[in-house]
Amino acid sequence: MSSPDASHLAALRPRLPSPLEQVEDDRFVRRGLRLVLKRDDLIHPELIGNKWRKLAPNLAAAHGRTVLTFGGAYSNHLRATAAAGRLLGLPTVGVVRGQELADRPLNPSLARCAADGMRLHFVDRATYRRNAEPDVHARVLRAAGAEDAYVVPEGGSNSEAVRGCRALGEELRGHADVVALACGTGGTLAGLAAGLAPGQRALGVPVLKGGFLAADTQALQERAFGGRCGRWSLDDRFHFGGYARVPAELGAFAKDFEDRHGVPVERLYVAKLLYGLVALADEGAFARGTTVAAVITGRPFP
Questions:
Q1: pLDDT for position 211
Q2: 217 and 126: one domain?
Q3: What CA–CA distance (Å, rounded) separates 73 from 76?
Q4: Pairing state of beta strands 92-97 and 67-71?
């Protein structure tokens, strides 16, 4: 990271560039395709993959202030932010979607956040949806007791994060024709596409249903770079019903991929990406001779 404030992030030293591994998978080989895995899950033991790439520039910009961010009950982003706060000695606040969760035992994901020192503030779902409205946003911060905090949006996707993810595309120049990744908020895709070489293209596989991500991704690129950058597209067919939905078919697919290749498959994002790529290969969506890189953005939560 090039920020002049990066020196105080020594506790977050990453393994960069992350490894690139070829896997022999007959579902691709018989179509004349080459599959490689960009192992961003190995960047850092606690800030996994795109979470490190998006959080590091934001943590530098925070200048030691309390960091407040947003997420659902199983948010990988909340866990990563909490872990970063513990490692750096920064106070963190997580605004969690779902007021009803305040009266229940914490699930393992939120319990990890709390154990790492994150103060959790629960809000009702209607308020959470309106958080982009300035008056609602200010009210949420006041209620959380964090009016002076450095705010990172849900999923960590802002201009700093998008520019941080551009390096992911740069690391993949010359290594693949198509670079695919699972998408939640579009920030990683926005940065990745900007970093790729002109002959490459990025493919996003949304893990939420709704069809809103193209506009969000373009808006992120416009704010970070002044306009649309790189060649990118989305395929909305592989969300399996929405975020955190892991039906039996998807779970079985992920287990089979792990058995075939010895690579741990995170279920909420990575499994949907890999399932989508196998389906696209079977449909003939990639020309023979194409090298497809799948970005492994996370690993299973223990």
A1: 85
A2: no
A3: 9
A4: parallel
Statement to judge: residues 168 and 271 lie in one domain: yes
Residue 166: which domain range?
6-45+159-295
Asked if residue 57 belongs to a domain, the reply is no
With 0.90 as the threshold, say if the pTM is over it: yes
Q: With contact defined as beta carbons under 8 Å apart, do 168 and 195 qualify?
A: yes
The proportion of the chain whose per-residue pLDDT surpasses 90, expressed as a percent, equals 89
Q: Band of the pLDDT at 4, cuts 50, 70, 90?
A: very low
Dist CA 12 CA 124 (whole Å): 33
Residues 89 and 111 in one domain: yes
pLDDT digits (tens, 9 = 90+) for 241-265: 998 899 999 999 999 999 999 999 9
Please give the mean pLDDT across all residues of the chain: 94
Number of domains forming the structure of the chain: 2
169 and 89 part of one domain: no
Residue indicated by tokens 């290594």? 175
